[in-house]
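Lab notebook, bench 4. Still working through the backlog of constructs that have no structural model yet. Next entry is a single chain of 774 residues. Request: give me the structure tokens for it.
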Amino acid sequence: MLDICKFKLKDTKQDHLLFELEEKQLFARIFVLEENIFRVLLTKTLKPSLDKTWSITKNDIPFEGIDRLDTSSFSCPNFEAYGNDDFAVIATSKLKCEIKLNGFIISWYKRDSDEWVKISQDLDTQAYNLDFWSDRGVYHAIKKDPKSMFFGLGEKTGSLNRDKKRYEMKSIDPMGYDAESSDPLYKHIPFFISHNHLYKTSFGIFYDNLSDSIFNFGKEIDNYHGPYISYEAKAGDLDYYFILGDKIAEVTETFSTITGKTILPPYWSLYYSGSTMTYTDLPDAQSQMDNFIKDCQKYDIQCGSFQLSSGYTSIGDKRYVFNWNHSKFPDIQSFTKKYSDNGIKLCANIKPCLLQDHPKLDEVASFNGFIYNKYYTKPELVQFWDELGYYLDFTNPKTISWWQDNVTKQLLEKGIESTWNDNNEYEVYNGEAICYGFGKEIKIKHIKPIQSLLMTKASFEAQKHFAPQKRPYLITRSGCAGLQRYAQTWTGDNYTEWKTLKYNLEMAKGLSLSGIYNFGHDIGGFSGPAPEPELLIRWIQHGIFYPRFTIHSWNDDKSVNTPWMYPEALQTIQKAFDLRNELIPYIYQLCYQSHTDAKAILKPTFYDFETDIRTFEENQDFMLGNLLIANILEKNQRVREIYLPKGSNWYDYYAGRVYQGGKIISINVDIQSIPIFVREGSVIVTNNCKAGFNNFNQELVYKIYPSLTDISTQHQIYLDDGETMGYLNGENAVLNIQVINKDGKLNIDWQYQGHEYFKVAHPQIINMNKELKI
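Model written out:
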């Protein structure tokens, strides 16, 4: 490393140290934010190139973002700092960084008892682009430990471990993507976790940079540098957060916390949601939608919502956001009232682009509400779904007001309950196009994912203003870290085939590890052929465990994926729906825990059993809270092998039989099988009422799965009305349960405090006296 790369300490502040590379006019800051969180910021001037952040906040954030140098969301503890002309050391009680000032090479250490153990180090030969490579943009390289595994980056395809792979972080619309190999996809979450099982070390790195980027986890190799992982971004600054955790779970939950708590959804959003492109594409769309209600009633299917596809806005073959097609929907109020009367909420699809012949184009052009091409002095023309068009600029307050006015008048006032924010990837390939930037122009290359986020926030605020006592429920396809503050999401327009079922699960685990917890998939597959009966059954049996339980489709043959699609499969599918209804109270508990404590809802088995190395092997199992779900994801499968993690005994959910952890069991399965195992010591709250059309009755049962060893456990079950914002003002209830198992005797004490929202049955004890099956 050349001496011209040597940084010098410039200043010491309460929350950071400032260094300067005088020869290149580069500045480096090390922030100490928490005992286990440091931040590294490299800039070409004293001010960051993008002076706002929209991702880092523990609460909500204004539309215009917050100062990127603001550290008020953190405790900023005292730290130790010392060094000389060659190195600097900064340390808290848990985390330390040593900096070689020549090249600003950082080594990271965690405290283990009385020793500091190195857990990561920048690449010695070239860790950063110190303004020498004009064509590389932002660059960061880290030495690669061959025993490390890498997770995160959101909804990426393929296996969960990112090792030896390369990924592009660029939001596009990859309809019909290959769930094993397609890249990039919809979201921008530049966060990964490194885990080394040998050294019992986990840490996460979040790059707060919104430009298109590339992650290399060892797929790229170079003999001159040795093994490395690297990050490159096309624009902006290198601004990353280093998060130390004792476990992977701690890293994930810390990241989710610092980017904002997951919104608590309304209870109704957990019921089955119908959807299809086909109904609203047809000329008699309102009649088709009426028939959906009739079919739900005919087959006694419980449905809580319907996601209304964009065909309702069509003129000819093209879609025009906020434009109702009155030929397809001759009586909008009658349409929405019929759905409301039958207990089905409507979530309408909206898109952030106006086609070049949109009826409302001049309205937005009058206040310069589009992303702008400065060279041609006119709005930036882009390729959209149906036609060329112009993206709305949500960094313009007038655009936000226009959008919210249309959400209110065209949707909410007409009886639509919520918004489905779709096609919001902002595929603007001219990175120099200009955004208003709340009065300070910003090039789109710096903030594409922020447009997606602000679109969703604008819809969120419109819904809050229209119905201030109701919890807003929204869906968004794209966004960045922080989208969980406003909306539920899903993995986009998947393709109908068996391997999608398998790899969508891996994508789900990746989202969870990246701090996004409220999501689901298009059950049955969105694009391609109609699913065969067995595939539809297995997809529904799998989908019932996700917060978003939506069957959605745009099949090549114009058929519609519905629970009653195949008469021969209906009975089996209804049983899966019954299980969903039974577990909704438990899923709601998990949603509440994700909201209050940043706990993941659906997670890989290693999330809770990190000390068991076998849980890191690729598998098709996952945890839903304390339930281990071992769905059937292979065609014609009749035997299922399941590894039950070490560290717990496991109850068969149906039979109550107990299995020892740390072993593989083999069970026979048929078309109705949905294997579930319960971690000992759990309390699972379920609904004892039968599901049915427009029947949302609840009678809560608390199933206690005692530990087989002498132990006392405390459990708290949370309840509220499931719909209003009253929970923020203490309008809720809790059921406190204490389970004491001593000398083979079980003592249960339970107390209900607060309003009785649902009928509550006495706790049900599962299999106290049955022997352990080895």
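Notes after review: DSSP finds ten helices and 55 strands in the chain. The CA atoms of residues 557 and 692 lie 30 Å apart. Flag for follow-up if needed.
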